[in-house]
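Sanity check

After download, print the first record. It should look like this:
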Amino acid sequence: MSSPLPDIVRNFERVPAHVVAQAAQFQPAILADVAGRRGAVHGRIKALRPRMKLAGSAITVEVRPGDNLMIHAAIAMAKPGDVLVIDGKGDQGAALMGTIMMTACKKLGIAGVVMDGACRDSLEIDEMDFPVFSVGTNPNGPTKSIGGRIGHPVSIGGVTVNPGDFVIGDGDGVVVVEREKIESLLPLAAKKVKDEAARIAAIHEGDTAAKWLVSALRTAGVLQEGETL
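Expected structure tokens:
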């Protein structure tokens, strides 16, 4: 009988750096589409500022609401390019991170923070230009006394995130793609970008009609056979 995993899992596979670099060129929306319109985190978790962007491999953290002890441990363990993905249970009663922790993250080369919880010191984080995605802000500070887990699967915004999964975020929100899957999606993402660019160019030339619309309306029972808009 195998022994249970420890609370802190120190070693897990990450997305190779060259794959992260390629995937980071695409919008999260493009990757969500080619991943089957899944992996998008609930919109309540959003960029602290719309311009903020991040991409990297997840180092997952589970904490009790309002306690950031395990986040400090994760920062000490993280590798450059990692994204801290924190399951804070959606709590907004206290900030889990602020300027001091974010400054350390930036200095260590951590790619950004995604947390199902609140942060504080938002103006200073804005000035730092460090990418943070959260459910909001709160000036209350956290406690640092309750255990949790690092390197285990977590759930944030309705999406399961495993350690090492690819995480990308921009002003639209955050998308998570399984580590084993992200590289295979890159050709599909490139094709979608090309196809969308061609469609937009056609619209600019006056071809505004959605070719699929009438058929879809008939299938939905809105239009009868032979009927058009």
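If your output differs, re-run the checksum step. Summary of this record's structure: Residues 17-180 form a domain with the Glucose Oxidase; domain 1 fold (CATH 3.50.30.40).
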